Amino acid sequence: MRRRVIYSLLAVLMAVIFLINGCTTKASRLTPHEGGKIRIYTTIYPLYDFAVKIAGDKASVQKIVPAGVEVHDFEPSPKLVAGIYDADVFIYLGGSIDPWAEKLAVQLLKEGVTVVKAGEGLFQEELHEDEEGVTEGNGQHLDPHVWLDPILAKTLAERIAEAMAATDGKNEAYYRKNLEDLKKRLDDLDEKYRNSLLSTSKRDFVVNHAAFGYMAKRYNLNQIAISGLSPQQEPSPKKLAELAKLCKERDIRYIMVEAASSSKLAEVLAKETGNKVLVLHPLENLTDEDIRAGKDYFSIMLENLENLKRALNE
């Protein structure tokens, strides 16, 4: 009898300990980390850059995908995932660009982390041009590259700011002011694109990676892609021959390539057509060299604009 009472008391004690630990874990989510800052983890570069601009000096922002890494192939290590559990806010885009984040987000929600699926409801079907010049969806993939449209980028920024404000209420006014500043910069960027691209002599541009559908739609352009949404997709020789013919028929003089990806196929097409190669950066990630040069979302978007103007006016 006495032994049964002791076991019962031990069971109650262990239950209390687990309850206290659970409460402590939940409470620690609401307690700022070092320097009084909440901790924010983001997946891809555009989300990171917007989060940094909104957070200012009130939050610590970390990007999960390392600089220079191809985001379509990235999978976080168990050690990295363990570190993310210390987050107060977790921001991912959703869709095909960070699919590993979907399962992680479910677990983080259970741990009391504020989770933001920033691209929710924004994705559209990938558009491509076939050999007969017909633009259509492929019926399989949703294009995740919404940040390349400055107007859709504002929605991403708003969702990021809302999460920060909800998690760190004492700095809500600060985050909202920074959001308004960021949205104004995005509006200014949109105006620059409109003024430059809505009156170009050509509307078609060829890219090695179908990342620019939202940008093309916003400014009434036509993206003709060598490969699909993933830069690793390779077209057939027949498709390359059709693209070469299309370039000649439409007087397309430049092939646009990513800064960070292989441009072998684009160079083959350029050689076949006698075209030159220009960079069009998808901003999925930056290289260490980009970061050392002080580049960010806005500086690269302006570089993209200059190259698009050149390709569409010559």
Automatic annotation (TrEMBL):
Protein name: Zinc transport system substrate-binding protein
Source organism of the structure: Caldanaerovirga acetigignens
Coiled-coil regions listed: 172-199
GO BP: any one term: metal ion transport
Keywords: Coiled coil, Signal, Transport
Family designation: Belongs to the bacterial solute-binding protein 9 family.
InterPro entries listed in its UniProt record: AdhesinB (IPR006129), Bact_metal-bind_prot9 (IPR050492), Lipoprotein_PsaA-like (IPR006128), ZnuA-like (IPR006127)
Gene Ontology molecular function: metal ion binding
One Pfam family of this chain: ZnuA
